[in-house]
Amino acid sequence: MFATSLVAWSTRVLARISLAVGTATRNAKSVNTLSMFAAIVLSAVANAQSERGSVSETSVEAALPVAPASPEELVVWTLLQPSAESGVPDVAAVSARIAKGGPSAASPIVAILLGESAEPEVAYAVHPRAIEMRRKILVDALKLLTPHDAIDGVRSRITSKTSVDARLLAIQVLSEIGGVPAFDGAIGIAGALDPIQWERTFVQGAIENAFVELVGRNPRIARRLASSMQNSPSGLAQIEARALTKARAATALPALLSNLGRDGALDLCILEQLEKVGANCDPLADPEALKRLHAMLESPDHDVQRAALVAAARIGDTDSIPLMLSRLTSADTLTQASARWALETSSGEKKGLDAAAWNEWWAHEKAWAEEELPNLSEALQIRDAQMVKASIDAGLTHRAHRHAVASAIKPMLDAQDPSAQRLACEVLAQIGSPRALPWLIEKLESENEDVRKAAWNGLRTITKQDMPADGAAWRLALAP
């Protein structure tokens, strides 16, 4: 819970304890103990806010007493304060009663959610479960309104004086409402923050989590988030890059690559995200973006160089290998270590920092790619099982060329013999190149059950996603 909400909550606890002193049947010792507990909570929260620093003028205002509830808010509060004797409230029923107020109910709901409406005192004990359920009741009530009314209700409460915590809570509420209009509202609130807020960890986390939830509820929002990233300032774009990576790698990759070169801090963030999802990238998908990545490998900034080395290795970009080799002799020892890791990841070999050994390996790889790889497709068409196995084994040992080997395997998917198609699906799964994903999706519609099963297993192996064997679902999930 946000600190300002805790302050308001603690204030209400103290008020209720004061009321209980004159009316409750507790003994004096119990009252004193509870009063001391509430005072300690207030002190701890105040200290926590102090440690976080003064994030804006509105943060100071957030600590002031909230305004008394308006008549419209009192109507909602009445439904949120059932007595302990009335039993556990029905969340759906209470939400429906609140939502009956129509568009005019949106603003009071949001005011209470954001802690901007003082809870009225009552002369009876409120059911404790009702207090626990308030957030769900209020959010569900918003969901029962039209998206336009619900989102307008949230926006109407955001002013120049709204605290950062309240803005983040509003973004979270919008993520729970879900849908494109809710995303537009959330991105609008996030974009209106003082840029310094984008640098704060708790702000970044709240916005990222909200965006991830929005994409999770509607995968098509990932494209909207990617589009927003193109035009966002660097600080906000970094948040969007991390959210895209967490939410949906297929959309993240083209967005990340297309934003390389805009800003130094953003470049470093993007390269770090590419380290996480680069294995899902086909270098041929965006040759221009790969050129920007190559430029990062030659950056004078060692941090950028190291991140670019890792990203290139994850992607399996063969064209980056000469630059990886050159970084083995970098003056920066951390860059040397990153170059070694990148080469080991690209090749599957272990040669330490021995530049001569790595250069010898690369010379052998280039010779194989020029002399043997072009003949691989033809060799795989031979009916002799031993020769086919030998050709496949040769392809699998050259990990640095896995994308090209996958292309060489592709003709087997068109063979008339279903067993050859099944074998091709199995080999493509072992190779692990994302280049094969659209081909495997197509084989989900094969008439042969063994081929369909092999294609499905291949998709799950390469993507690490467990989805039904449904071509339409896979196309939607992997669409950029």
Please describe what this structure looks like.
With 480 residues, this protein is mainly α. It is built from 27 helices and no strands. It has helices at residues 3-23, 28-52, 57-62, 71-80, 91-99, 106-113, 128-144, 147-156, 164-177, 180-191, 201-217, 221-231, 234-247, 249-258, 264-277, 287-297, 302-315, 321-326, 333-347, 355-371, 373-380, 385-396, 402-409, 418-431, 437-443, 449-463, 471-478. The radius of gyration is 29 Å and the shape is elongated. It starts with a helix and ends with a helix. The model is unreliable at 1-64 (pLDDT under 50).
* SSE run: HHHHHHHHHHHHHHHHHHHHHHHHHHH
Quaternary organisation: single chain
Q: Averaging pLDDT over every residue, what do you get? A: 84
Beta strand count: 0
Q: What fraction of residues sit in β-strands? A: under 5%
Please estimate the helix content: 55-70%
Q: Helical segment tally?
A: 27
Which secondary-structure class do the elements indicate?
mainly alpha
Termini separation: 35 Å
**Major beta sheet, specifics?**
none
Question: Which regions contain 5 or more consecutive residues with pLDDT less than 50?
Answer: 1-64
Task: From the alpha carbons, calculate the radius of gyration and give it in angstroms.
Answer: 29 Å
Shape: elongated
